[in-house]
Specification:
heterodimer; A: mainly alpha; two-stranded antiparallel sheet; 12 helices; 57% helix; disordered N terminus; B: mainly alpha
Chain lengths: 302, 343
């Protein structure tokens, strides 16, 4: 990092340059697609949302049944069987039901933009969905019922052991690279961010003065030869960045480029300058790519 | 415009970059695919009309090909990212679940479930062996010294049935008539089902810890059962006891054995990964084991019906044995024969 840039700017640049939690899957057509893992926090929130829906639904059903019971005054045999069956099915198969019907999402996951996907890249099959949700029995419901019954067998030490044992299962997503929970391991799935990307205007056509305007600044081939693809795409990110202090960031970047390529003019219009430099550099690098030369970054010798 | 000589300032080219014209040419197709994806976002493929459905794979492959081209000629990062996202979403739609629920269920019952059970033969045998071992040990120990009964059977489960109980009261439990309390039987049955199914799923899920908890659970269940049997046999009620137990036990114990087998499969997958990494192997085996456990949940349902209704309404011991034998033969026939024919 340049000594002149502030730590805040350095952090912002680093955030732009390093996308988090990226993995890749290979489609049956043989094209490798990059995917982003769901953040552990987002998954926890999605799960809490789902659990609230489950308990809310159960409570509502119990309420209705209780009203019916009071008003009917009859023997409540069928009512109790209804309660047992309904709570069992909702509790055990809520997740599996939605993940099967909604292509790997539940209401909570959908709210957080998450999705269950087969780790090997194949279709998400029913047995995988069932497997990953059966494991919730030890990840969630067993610890929950043990905590509610205030400790396991064997007093204090027993409780401690129980907590450690449960902790291993419950906290499994924290202990592996891909944030897999036990259910994901057993089913061969993982939870990804549902891909969404907007197609933004082409920067080479979107000069600040409008696409029709001629470029104001011109660069020599020697000036374009300095940078590589990495620098070009970092510049693209900076130009697409839309935050409060973008102007400062751009000024800093422009200052560095001017110093590096030896630009004679001291004070160009920063936005126009960066955009023209981006377009010229991209044209230069893409032309080289057509001839089979891919210059990775400014240190790449070719 | 002529080729650019070195060191000469070049004004912005009047023609487009190659990547820009490529984008302009292909963009309408991407937008069409995007619209289809948006339409199918909530309801899946069912939301699409026939015409749209037919164009989906074509647009999907076109997007993949655009992505490959963009990766090789375009340095516009946003276009590449957009295409990756678009292709990813289309991939999930095209290769996501697309089964008709009813057909899937039929397929599951006819082929998937019995097939998975047949493939797991070794584990089922092992699971059955562990359960039987528990029964025999519990039986022999309790028969030799009645005090063992208290170690194997918890107070809540014994519910007053212990070595100190009178033979007549023990006998009465076996032949409790449920005909006058019919409406409560359904509650009893559904409680049994949800409870047993939960314990079965637990036995499966615990297998993840190298299978040890599953083995323990099977053994403990066996010990309890053996201790009960010993108590009744020591009072000369053995014949009636096994009829009382097996009328639903033939189904329920089989389901327990299946859940145990699922747990053992998970444990074995972790301990002996074979040619795969542990994680990959767990993913392969876990799915098959889960299928077996779902089968066991279905069996628990029937077992609860037999326990909640059948046992309270059928008080004749030979009939109970006949029901037990019939259900056992039925399950075996299903597991061994179903789905063997060509698909």
């Amino acid at each position: 990092m340049n000594a002149k840039s502030t730590p805040a700017q350095a952090a912002q640049l680093a955030a732009i340059q390093n996308p988090p939690l990226m993995r890749s899957i290979s489609t049956p057509e043989g094209v490798v697609l990059p995917v982003e893992l769901g953040q552990r926090g987002e998954r926890a929130v999605a799960f809490i949302l789902d659990i609230l829906i489950v308990f809310g639904t159960l409570l509502a059903i119990y309420f209705v049944l209780a009203i019916t019971l009071i008003s009917s005054r009859g023997s409540g045999g069928w009512l109790f069987s209804a309660i047992f069956l309904i709570s069992f099915f909702i509790r055990s198969f809520y997740f599996a039901f939605f993940e099967l019907r909604w292509q790997g999402t539940t209401p909570g996951k959908r709210a957080m933009g998450l999705r269950v996907v087969d780790r090997a890249g194949g279709p998400l099959r029913a047995d995988a969905v069932l497997a990953r949700n059966l494991m919730r029995e030890i990840e969630v419901f067993l610890p929950l019922s043990l905590l509610l019954s205030a400790g396991g067998p064997g007093g204090g030490w027993g409780l401690l052991l129980t907590l450690v044992w449960m902790g291993i299962f419950v906290l499994m997503p924290l202990f592996n690279r891909d944030a897999l929970r036990v259910g994901d391991m057993v089913a061969g799935t993982w939870v990804l961010v549902a891909p969404k990307a907007a197609l933004l205007p082409d920067l080479s056509e979107a000069a600040p003065g409008g696409p029709s305007e001629e470029s104001r600044y011109a660069f020599t081939k020697a000036q374009l030869r300095i940078y590589g693809i990495y620098e070009l795409q970092t510049l693209e990110n900076v130009l697409r960045e839309d935050r409060v202090n973008t102007a400062e960031l751009r000024a800093e970047v422009a200052k560095r480029i001017i110093a590096r390529i030896g630009w004679p003019d001291e004070e160009p219009d920063i936005d126009r300058f960066l955009n023209d430099f981006y377009t010229a550099l991209r044209g230069h690098l893409e032309r080289k790519m057509l001839f089979g030369v891919r210059r990775r970054d400014k240190h790449d010798g070719s | 415009m002529s080729a650019v000589e070195a060191n000469q300032a070049t004004p912005r080219p009047a023609f487009d970059l190659k990547s820009t014209s490529f984008r302009r040419e292909r963009e309408p197709g991407w937008r069409r695919l995007e619209a289809l994806l948006e339409k199918a976002r909530t309801g899946g493929l069912a939301k699409l009309e026939t015409r749209e459905l037919l164009s989906l794979p074509i647009l999907y492959r076109a997007a993949l090909s655009s992505l490959s081209v963009a990766r090789s000629i375009s340095l516009d990062q946003n276009v590449v990212h957009y295409l990756e996202g678009l292709a990813g979403r289309a991939y999930l739609l095209v290769y996501g679940g697309r089964t008709n629920a009813l057909a899937a269920m039929g397929n599951f019952l006819r082929f998937t479930l019995p097939g998975a059970v047949r493939k797991a033969g070794v584990y089922i045998a092992l699971s059955a062996f562990i359960l039987a071992l528990g029964v025999i040990v519990g039986y022999v120990l309790t028969l030799g010294n009645a005090d063992w009964y208290y170690s194997f059977v918890s107070d809540s489960m014994a519910a007053g049935r212990g070595p100190n109980a009178e033979t007549e009261s023990l006998r009465e439990v076996l032949f409790r008539d449920g005909r006058d309390t019919k409406d409560r039987l359904s509650a009893f049955a559904s409680f049994l089902f949800s409870n047993n199914a939960r314990v079965g799923m637990l036995a499966f899920a615990l297998g993840f810890a190298f299978g040890a908890p599953t083995v323990l659970l099977l053994l403990i269940n066996g010990l309890t059962l053996g201790a009960f049997a010993a108590l009744y046999v020591s009072r000369g009620l053995g014949y009636d006891f096994w009829g009382w137990l097996l009328i639903h036990g033939a189904t329920e114990l089989s389901a327990i054995v299946l859940c145990g087998a699922g747990g053992l499969m998970l444990g074995a997958a972790v301990v002996f990964p074979g040619d795969y990494t542990r994680l990959v192997n767990l993913g392969r085996v876990g799915r098959r084991a889960a299928v077996i456990v779902i089968g066991a949940v279905i069996m628990f349902f029937f077992a609860a019906l037999l326990e909640g209704f059948g046992r309270q309404l059928i008080l004749h011991t030979p009939t109970r044995y006949m029901v037990a034998a019939a259900t056992m033969v039925g399950w075996l026939w299903y597991a061994l024969r179903s789905g063997r024919q060509a698909r």
